[in-house]
């Protein structure tokens, strides 16, 4: 079960995305997958390269569109474990519509966002996760927009699994990804993954000083939606661990009527001429 391949990542030394790659590889092995059971779909951005660095099926998609592709893969072959991945710009700007609707649709896909609060690939512009006042080339006097509280938004959109972790905490991150893969339904995992080259504010040190681990909050109950939202708001979203999980909500696949036992990719879709003619008649 080796999810490593021989491609050397071209991320900057110290980039948080290395840990996310390692955590996915470890989590996939820990839950007993084989490389041929896993598909990793990514969007565009530095983090989007991750699909090429894991020994599994991989699809490097288009900007903000990892989720439509990942959901299509899962619907066509629900025997696969499907991970969608990308950055905060990819998922929460151009891809935000897909993110919200994938959450409420609840197809069994694990979505991992490498959140560095900046656009790295295009050399450092303000992203939807940059705090107000954040200075970059695109906001030289400081951003005048507020950052998206993405975890609260995911919960209000109906997510059944919401978790957050930090690249510096490989043990927790691996465990969270394992839990996300094992959850039946859409799993939303946001990872603080510092961009060491362009983000000089939200650094590893900054996160270490500001993150509150949910394990340290006595009596925290991840089945309580209200407590999840209140805790996020109290700590400005800077908490890590399993934030909310609803194991009772059925996944999209479980609710689709007439879903055949055999996944689409394994069905014989060869059309006999009579069937084809009949279909043509029906559509004319
Ligand atoms: Fe990572 Fe930033 Fe370098 Fe991109 S620019 S590889 S996000 S450190």
How many helical elements? 10
Q: From the alpha carbons, calculate the radius of gyration and give it in angstroms.
A: 20 Å
| CATH topology-level name | Rossmann fold
Strands ordered across the widest β-sheet: 2-1-3-4-8-7-10-9
Number of domains: 1
Gross morphology is globular
The CATH superfamily is Thiamin diphosphate (ThDP)-binding fold, Pyr/PP domains
- Based on DSSP secondary structure assignment, what is the total number of beta strands? 10
The average pLDDT is 95
Low-confidence stretches: none
Largest sheet: 8 strands, mixed
Strand content: 15-25%
CATH architecture: 3-Layer(aba) Sandwich
Pattern of helices and strands: HEEHEHHEEEHEHEHEHEHH
Structural class, judged by helices and strands?
Answer: alpha/beta
CATH class: Alpha Beta
Question: TL;DR of this structure?
Answer:
The chain has helices at 17-30, 66-76, 88-94, 96-105, 150-156, 170-182, 204-210, 225-234, 252-255, 273-283, and strands spanning 38-42, 57-60, 81-87, 110-115, 118-119, 125-126, 161-166, 187-192, 212-213, 239-245. The chain has 284 residues and is of the alpha/beta class. Strands 2-1-3-4-8-7-10-9 form an eight-stranded mixed sheet, sandwiched between helices. A two-stranded antiparallel ribbon has the order 5-6.
Report what the structure shows:
The protein has 284 residues and is of the alpha/beta class. It has a single domain (17-255), classed as Rossmann fold (3-Layer(aba) Sandwich), CATH 3.40.50.970. Helices cover 33% and strands 17% of the residues. It has ten helices and ten strands. The strands form two sheets. Strands 2-1-3-4-8-7-10-9 form an eight-stranded mixed beta sheet, sandwiched between helices. A two-stranded antiparallel ribbon has the order 5-6. Helix 8 links the parallel strand 9 and strand 10. Helix 1 crosses helix 6. It is globular, with a radius of gyration of 20 Å. It starts with 16 loop residues before the first helix and ends with a helix. The structure holds iron/sulfur cluster (SF4). Residues 11-12, 15, 17, 46, 116, 120-121, 195-198 line the site of iron/sulfur cluster.
